[in-house]
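User: My instructor asked us to take a sequence, write out its structure as tokens, and then describe one feature of it. I'm not sure where to start. Here is the sequence I was given:
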Amino acid sequence: MGEIENIELEKERSFNDYCDSLKELVDEYNVNHLLSKEKLFMCRDVYRYYPFIFIEAFEQIEVKTIRILSKALSFYYTYILLMDKVLDTRELPNGTLILFLNVIQRKVMGILQDVFPLNSEFWKYHEKYYNQYIKGILLERRNHLNVCQEYTEDEFHTISIGKTSLAKLAPATLGILIGNEEDIISFEKSHDNFALGRQLIDDIQDWKEDLLNKRFSYPIMTVISKNNLQTSIIANQISEEDIAKYFFYSGHAEAFLSQALEYFDLAKNDVKEINCPTWISCIESCTSMAERYRDDIKYLREKELSKIYINKRTKLNTSFTIKNTSSKNFEDAINHSNIKAVEYLIQKQDKDGFWRDFMVNSIGCFWTTGYIGYALREQSGISKNLDSARVALLKSRESEGGWGFNRHVISDADSTAWCILFILTRGTSYNELQIDFDMLRSHRHSDTGGISTYRKDKATLNSQSLEKYKIFSNKKYLSESHKSMIGWCSPHLCVTSVAVQAFCFEKRICEDDVSLIKDINYIKENQNKEGFWESYWWDGRIYGTANSIKALSMFDRVKFDSAIIRGMDWLSSVQQLDGGWNNGNFGESSAFNTALCVSLLSKFGKNKYSYNCEKGIKWLLDNQMDDGSWKSIPIMRVPYEDQLNPWEEINKKNEAILYRLTEDSRRLFTTATVVDALKQFQKNI
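Assistant: Let's start with the prediction itself. The structure tokens for your sequence are:
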């Protein structure tokens, strides 16, 4: 088992220890009515295993000890959430809840005292951070809850750092155990800067809710003060829409997000001499979020101010030109971009051969390796890396065939299809993968056609299977009824289309395969009249459309030419004016979606869409990062297990969409997709 997956397993054990202990406390004190509706107390969250984020800097410490500390700090996190509940209520505080807060705090102290004797230096840090927490909470409530008055930068620092100060116990506990207080100080500074940047993002995202509840945050209060709006706010003489104009159209929101980016840079610089890649990854993830949010706000602001509304059906601006598209310079630029991108991907391959990305409670491994390996199939000079990935996958497949998201999740059709596609490109024969093809076939729905990600019988087979589902699931506990998994166990276009590509990789498999023909018809029949296909696991329509077209083309290009052309015409019609593609619905252009379209149109559209592809390539070249990768955005959708059509199912309360989106935080999935697009463009255009 790889080192990273060992850590993931220990994090899972730590979380389960916490859940079991919390249940015991709840039962012992008979306070289930206080927590039964509070999903936060039982959900996986980065703060539930915070010490593991700093594990690389303190390698001498046994993982068992880190697991104990993680459990203690998870209780502290629950303490903070409950304290927020007490403080935020506008009614008299719940006496029972206050007493239970004391129980939780005693639980934390008990766990920590088992590790640190009372004369340990650790308690000095504990007192310091706890005092910062109390001071920050009290200052915010006294000066800025229901009080519209000036908010100083010093106050912002005290409040923002104080509210998250107890999280600094994570590196402090580890540093004390090995006698390294120097690194504790560095992590303190880094964490404080991180907290300042994160608070600015939260304040901008939650400005409307904060204003409604008269929580006057630093960004909102700054805008109010600069525009002398205090009197109007107090008298309720200014609308929410007008405040939004002051906040967003003036550029204030973008300025605060730029300030957040500066804090994140400082946070990284504070620990530049320490080996802490996981902590750096957390900072970089928030950096990407701030950049993306700032870019979105800027786009909407400029769009509103200029009163230019872009209809996604508008034809492309023919005055846009690609410089040197037919010249050696353009070809050299593509080659240089490709080399940098491949180097980035090779550097990020783990020693055990896997590429890991997408943190969904645990990190993606088998699925991501299959996808990335397949995207790199035509690259030269990396045979050893690809063979290493192939060997790692073959050693890791399940006894019944197939692969899952990672070692801790049961096999699924999507991961298996991508792994098959990649392994076949490395010279492995169809016969050697017979067990894996059989696993894919077992996910077919004979009545409707189509292939589901998971199988009903495996989803409800036994408690062990359910435990594996929990790691990937939105919910902590799943029902054992089939209905609870109906969404994940129904046919999915985005999965069926990739599975069909795997079946069609060797042409001889296609002939006289009645089940495969049903899968093909399922794809064809579910094409929207506009030409696109929806996707279950992916945000927007690009991924589903691109892979459905590939599947139909590989099966019988002539027979399904009409559907294929309609799909490609739709893709070309939603290209943005900047040359890139968004998700097919809304938003700015992204590298992932642009690459999917360029790859598809280059390979199957050729001359008809060459202009679209050239513009897409130019956008990709212009947006490559210095390290050779491309910026990631939240692209992977994780619906609830019983959702059938997550793209259209919205919370009845209109509060939020009932699924979450996650990004490939290491940027491997996105970058690999672009690498394939560059290669397909060079081969076919």
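For the description part of your assignment, you could build on this observation: Strands lie at 357-360, 362-364, 636-639, 659-662. Try explaining in your own words what that tells you about the chain.
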